[in-house]
Fold these 2 entries.
Entry 1:
Amino acid sequence: MGTIPFDSTIALLREGYPFIASRCDAAGTDLLTTRLMLRRVTLLRGAEAAQMFYDGRHLTRQGAMPVMVQHLLQDEGSVQSLDGAAHRRRKRLFLSLMGVGAMDRLSALYESEWDRALTRLHGSGRVRLDHLSRIVLTRAALRWCGIVLDSVDVPRLTRELSLMIDEVARPGPPNWYARWRRRGTEAWAAGVVEQVRSGDLTPPPHSALAVLAGHAEDGAVLPPQIAGVELLNLLRPLLAVSRFIEFAAVALVRHPQWREEFAAGEEADLEPFVQEVRRFFPFFPVVPGRVRVPFRFQGHDLRVGDWAILDLYGTCHDPRAFPDPDSFRPERFRGWSWQEDPFTHIAQGAGRHEDDHRCPGEWSTVALLKQAVRLLCRDELEVPPQDLSIRLDRFPAAPRSGVVLAGL
Ligand code: HEM
């Protein structure tokens, strides 16, 4: 086991994403204990730890997230705050929305909104990809959910969803402001659900909005606030895919051979490429949990209530699973499937989706990324010289320039 400094919060903030893995490497272990914000915590990384963390038995998310993070991301009453049978039931609702047809529709909506946005921007010279893709994604996500665009102030909603992502790790006023704005967004989402139930809105029968509004647990539909929170649990992370799209654009600039291949319509490696984008670039750094049942792991006793943190980024860069992990090599994902290997490529959680908290949005993330890469290559937009560096000591990390595109 590694050393136990009194408190590692400052070191974590200073070093960012590589903090846990570099400590584990130095101590030759996958488990360390320290304190964060003065609270004792067990830090874990690697496939074995991911398997334990995501087996649906050992940990709960309740009381594990700092309040400032939880209230901006999943919030109370959401699928992520549930355990056991209640969690599995709610999770099935999300997974039922992610079928092949629904993913094709999402990709098609992304393309139609991307084309619309580029037509409107024609002649404007340049645009930041992060700004562009957020609007495109919000519009595509609303339509995919079954919400009529005319009924929504889309730029405003885009700003509100963006705040939930951008301000998640900034303590103090920016976070309070984002949380205050989120209350308004939650009220809007609950109102949309109520309008469906009262018959004032009629979304298409199998759309996410229709399914959410009609979903019943123990014979009763979800309270409108909870259904609204879950609606935001679709809209917010769909917008967050914009960060992966920026990273994909950076990868295409750094490795132009992939751009040439995809522009020529050769798509055999498109899926491996987007899987490597998800593995390689820094996004969701860690996942916290609290121990539900006492157990021993790698010679260390964890007691009920103990705080544990799994390193997603470090596990995705573990050389035991990914040789030469700091090289961008899509080839490593040829023939790969998460079903055969659910504990190594864990950018969006590990294990089986239905058993634990692994992200139900993985299929939509991959579908949108593939479509975004296709369109970036098809449209041959220029990427003028700019600072595309990505600082690993910032949460959430981003290309510094926001990826400016020119030639519009
Ligand atoms: C943008 C890229 C995304 C990243 C990096 C990401 C990351 C994650 C991670 C790490 C978790 C697991 C949290 C935990 O174990 O407690 C998670 C859960 C979740 N994600 Fe995603 N996600 C993304 C996209 C999406 C999308 C597009 C959707 C919806 C369409 C989505 C919906 C959810 C939901 C509802 C959960 C909670 C699942 C549960 O508690 O069982 N995510 N996500």
Note: Residues 9-406 form a domain with the Cytochrome p450 fold (CATH 1.10.630.10).
Entry 2:
Amino acid sequence: MSDCPGEYELRDIVHTVRYQGLVIVIDHVPAEVCTVCGDILFKPETVRRIEEIIRSRTAPSQLVPLYEYA
Ligand SMILES: [Zn+2]
């Protein structure tokens, strides 16, 4: 979608989303990551899984320290 010359490679990333005012962090999400600009692409089934996790409201496996920059 851009003129970036980078190539995408499969990596496990930490994905952070804000949902209904909550910050939700999901670790080890498989994603295609551009080696140059860091652009991230998810497969459709990964997006579905992420939405499932967010909506499931099951207890998280870990709590993450959250800091405010300001
Ligand atoms: Zn790129």
Note: The first helix runs from residue 44 to 56.
